[in-house]
Each structure stands twice: as C-alpha cells, then as structure tokens.
Please model this.
Amino acid sequence: MIETPINSSIVSQKIAESGIKEVGKATIREIKRLVDRIEESTREKYIRMEMGIPGLPPNKFGVESQIEALQKGVAAIYPDIQGTPILKSEISSFVKNFLNIDVNPEGCIPTVGSMQGSFASFLALSRIYKERNTTLFIDPGFPVHKMQHKVLNLKFETFDVYNFRGEALREKLESYFSNGHIHSVIYSNPNNPSWICFTENELKIIGDLANKYDIVVMEDLAYFAMDFRKDYSVAGQAPYQPSVANYTDNYILFISSSKAFSYAGERIGMMVISDVLFQRKFENLLNYYVSDGFGYSMVFGTIYPLSSGTSHSAQYGLYGVLKAANEGRFNFVEEVKVYGKKAKIMKKLFLDNGFKIVYDKDENSPIADGFYFTFSYPGMDGIELLNKLIYYGISAISLAITGSERIEGIRACTSLVKESQFGDLEYRLKTFNEHHKN
Model:
C-alpha cells in the first residue's frame, strides 16, 4: 500500500463510518464533517479548501455598531419586516456608490443572509406567471441554490457557461428563453465556484434578452468587488462593480455581508429589487398573496412568513459597515485582497506539481486570483481525484455538484488556508504527483 501523508487506515475508517459512499460526490457540509473527524483522530491538519467561508475576523465598524445597538436594547424589539429604515437608506447609498445604480430604499431589504434572499425570490418568482414554471441557472453555481429549488419543489434548467462566453452566450440564452417557460435566471458574479467574471458585453447580452423576453435576472454578488483586476473600492468613483442592473430593470441583486465584509456569522445579507420590478403588478400573484404588487408580495407575503424579518442588532452591524464604506472610512476591498494573494501562490503550487487550472479565462483574459480557483489532474475526473486527495490531507469539493460540465474539476477555496500551511500543501501535492504521474 502507498504511504500517504495522512494515515490511510484511519482515513478509510472515517469514510466508512461517515456513510459517504464516495467523497467526490459528497456535499460541502458532509466533507467538512468527515475532515473534522479525520483531523480529530490523526491530529493532522488538512489543507481545508471545501468551505467557502471567510477566513478573516469581522471588521470593527460592524462589531462596534452592533454592540451599541444591543446596549440600547434593540434585542428586545421586533425589527420592521421590510428592514430598519437607516439600514435600508444606507444600502441604497451603497448601491449608488459602488454599483452606480439608483434604487429606492423601499426595495433594499435586509435578509437572513443572501440565502434567505434567494429562497424568497425563488418562491415569489415561481408565482408571477401562470404559464412559466422554470428558473434557468447559468452554471457552474452555488449548489445550495439548486437544493433550495428541490426543497420548494420548483423546476429549474441549467447549462455550463464554459463553452458559451462572449457572443455565444446570446444564442444559448435565447434557446431557453424563446420556449416561453423561463421566468427568471440566476448566476453569480464573480462566480462561485469557477471565479470567472462576466464581461460588460456578456452582462449587456443578459440584460437585453431579459428585456426582450421579460425575464427577471437574479444576480448573486456574494463576492462583491472581489475581482481584484480592477479597483472597485472608491465610493462614488468609477470603475464600479459590473452588474446587469446597467442593462435591465428586471433584476434582483443579492449582496452578501459574509465575504467582502467578513461578517458571516450574524446571517445578514441584502436583497435589492429594482424600482420598476418592486412596483410592478402580476395578476397571478393574487392566487397566492393578498396583493398583485411584486414588492409588497415579496415583503409581506414571502419574507414575513419565512422569518418575520432578520436580526435587529445585525442590521445595525451591517449599517455600521456600509456607512463606513459609503463615507470612505472603510476600504473593504483592500481588507480582502489577501484571498487573491493566496490564490496566486496556491495556483502556482498546483501547476508546478502536475495539476491544471480548469476555468482559466474570461473570454480572452486570464481570470483573477481570488476567493476560489478550479483545478484538475490528468487522467482523473473530479470525483476520483477528490477520493484520492482526501488521503493526502487536502479537502475541496468536486465541480460535479455545482452544475459544471467540467467533470474533471475540483473547486478550491483559499480563505481558510493559512500561509504557514503552504509548505505542507507543496509537500502533499508533490507527493501526490509522484504517486500518480504517468
């Protein structure tokens, strides 16, 4: 038996105890639990790349603002369902300052993380048209969004954008939209898991087709301004975070506080609905809600029964973060550039040891170094590769669970890998390559 960096007998035992048939097919949380148990038994630290969670401490502006709110007693008071007015106003200002988009505070709604925003949107959008019943995913994407559809028993279709960049995206989208069954489309930008970023031309294509076919676009901005090839950090000054909102009024934006603001634990996110969509009326909504108004139905018919709003004190925490960013006192982009620096080093270690980068281009430009990257190893698919890497002290997730057609690939997250572990990573990759190269 080949001697691997982590005791193979213990790894095999823990896999058997976990009930996971193949590590490469496991969900993110299943892999996390498995690796936790292997680490506990072996006392060996893994290169943890499976969880897409922030690796930085929370910023002081959020913490101080939330503490102040708690001391004033907001923990005993129900928040408004639609959000605390000062936060809604600050979200509106943030969207103007960093996206250059005008949105009334009414359509700026704090949610229990972006995941509640997406869950509520999937539910509401599935009801706007009697004759349309399907969401389109531009993949690869966040696996939990599909899980949410399955929980809600909603239909979705999907395609991998890898071979449809640039003008090719137009024909591909029209092949779905023209059938008349799609009510909405969702993608992330920058993308989880591939870290590709749509170009302005591609965003315009999506926006133009949304207008032509009356499709609502959900844009997941969980990694807001984290394409470090351009500096999106200065409030009210170009360049701005690219967005489909420049090309259509049929949009909902999900802005997370978890990654760009390192404020994940309080489960506070933002759903931003365009003024036009918020005020729009859909007759079919009356079959489910007391109003045909989209915004009213979203807030009082969907978010209300889901959670009665989100944490009161966390709203003040997010308010503090956004206010500092809007006033130029907090450069949130500079704070998270460490992810890009780590990605550059880590990708080189993989490439130097026989691995390849899977999603490597935005049209004709190399992708940015950032929160994620994707890799493969010659002669293996992603499931087989992950099944083997677990014995070498490296954990990640297979692209197979993200909707990607690049089944040879694996997603790596840079956030939890410490610079002090780069030596271990290099050794483990080198050992793996020695054991498996042709």
